[in-house]
Amino acid sequence: MSKDSLFKPEKATILSKRTLTESDKLFEIELDNGEKLNQEPGQFVQLFVPGVGEAPISITSSPTKEGPFELCIRAVGNVTNAIHQMKKGDKIGIRGPYGEGFDIEFLEGKDILLVGGGLGLAPLRSLINYILDKREDFGETTILYGCRRPCEVLFEEEIERWTESCDIDCRKTVDICPGGVCWTGNVGVITTLIPDMDFDPETTYAVICGPPIMYKFVMEELDKAGLPDDHRFLSLERRMRCGIGECGHCQINNLYVCQDGPVFNYADIKDLEEAL
Ligand SMILES: Cc1cc2nc3c(=O)[nH]c(=O)nc-3n(C[C@H](O)[C@H](O)[C@H](O)COP(=O)(O)OP(=O)(O)OC[C@H]3O[C@@H](n4cnc5c(N)ncnc54)[C@H](O)[C@@H]3O)c2cc1C
Ligand code: FES
């Protein structure tokens, strides 16, 4: 395959656009060649908006979902604001899926503790729905989700379903709840949920996705709970260009986040100065 074709996006069509919060939208997308994306939970695509550019975006739908794949996109800059303005039927480009996602085969049979902060729920949702669709393949599963305020909660209806489900333990928290707002979850940062958790550090594996600041504090709580370093997986975000290990834009020492990650075992990166 020539280098040019590696960088050539597949044409794709926006099938639907749904508002999740003031700054986040969920897009259903289909490749125009009719093929499935065949992603693994935790992988990302390079989204190309014609005339604007590319950005890496996690695939938020599970591979167990039939039909179009989904991207949850927060409008923060050029590409993400541009796609927020697009509508059903508009054309975009997709490269990927890329990167090392969550090691599903390894996680099978284990107890899973999922910790998602803010937009970190987007990649986690793919794994959560995979686990729910193959429930008997996994042990006890707990979701801890936190964001700043109730109006920033992503996938509200799904979180309600997970909370009510007997198959999974789902707990939610917000940093702040303004007066007069109806909120049934905890109030406090996400780490305040961890001391109440009763998990076995021998059998439990944590999967953590969130803003960089969250990792430091979650790691401290997991240290207190006695969870070994190699029982923790996390997804890193770096500015990317090629997405395929060619440009070095996302490099941390000898690691390329786009190719060796974005999901890493904490034991492998905890001593890399720039990683966390
Ligand atoms: C593996 C991976 C998965 C991701 N998944 C998602 C996802 O599921 N959903 C999602 O919404 N986002 C996701 N992101 C984040 C997304 O790729 C970035 O927010 C991306 O920058 C958006 O592109 P943009 O063109 O819209 O923004 P840009 O125009 O690139 O701007 C983004 C922000 O960065 C600032 N900025 C611009 N240039 C620079 C610079 N040179 N140095 C420092 N700051 C700069 C801007 O001011 C702005 O605040 C993911 C990122 C990675 C690496
Ligand atoms: S983005 Fe180019 S090497 Fe990772």
Automatic annotation (TrEMBL):
Q: One matching Pfam family, short form?
A: NAD_binding_1
- Keywords associated with the record: 2Fe-2S, Electron transport, FAD, Flavoprotein, Iron, Iron-sulfur, Metal-binding, Transport
Organism lineage:
Archaea, Methanobacteriati, Methanobacteriota, candidate division MSBL1
Q: Which Gene3D superfamilies match?
A: Dihydroorotate dehydrogenase, electron transfer subunit, Nucleotide-binding domain of ferredoxin-NADP reductase (FNR) module, Translation factors
Residues engaged in binding [2Fe-2S] cluster: C242, C247, C250, C258
The source's superkingdom equals Archaea
User: What is the organism field in this record?
Assistant: candidate division MSBL1 archaeon SCGC-AAA259A05
Give the residues annotated as coiled coil: none
What's the name of the protein? Oxidoreductase
